[in-house]
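Justification of computing resources. Each target in the renewal requires a structure prediction run like the one illustrated here; the chain below, 137 residues long, is used simply to show the kind of job we budget for.
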Amino acid sequence: MQALTISQMAREAGVNVETIRFYQRRGLLAEPDRPLGGIRRYGQVDVARVLFIKAAQRIGFTLDEVAQLLQLDDGTQCSDARAIAERKLADVRRRLADLQRIEDVLTQLVGRCAAKRGKVRCPLIDALQPPLAHDDA
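Resulting structure tokens:
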């Protein structure tokens, strides 16, 4: 039964009305017909779809990836959905490796700062600045 206004649906889904409209513009959520002189009404299936979108976003899926998953919603294409999730997992693992490298470099730089107290040049800032070109003219 289509009984919810857009603001009621947004409240139930824990989003704002503009989020609902944005999802509609992106093609992630259908816009119900407006009865002559009436207000569009949404159902629980629409709330569930918004909740699905938000849950997918929370674990890192982009809206484009969410759109792909929604196209596979009939449950018969689980292998396609798995392939999307495997690509996302590989991406997350790459980003984690990048973050680990960043953590290692920052740990070293912070260690240099602690070891060089009282020096005029900060080792952290010094390590991040490119060498200056010398003007020999």
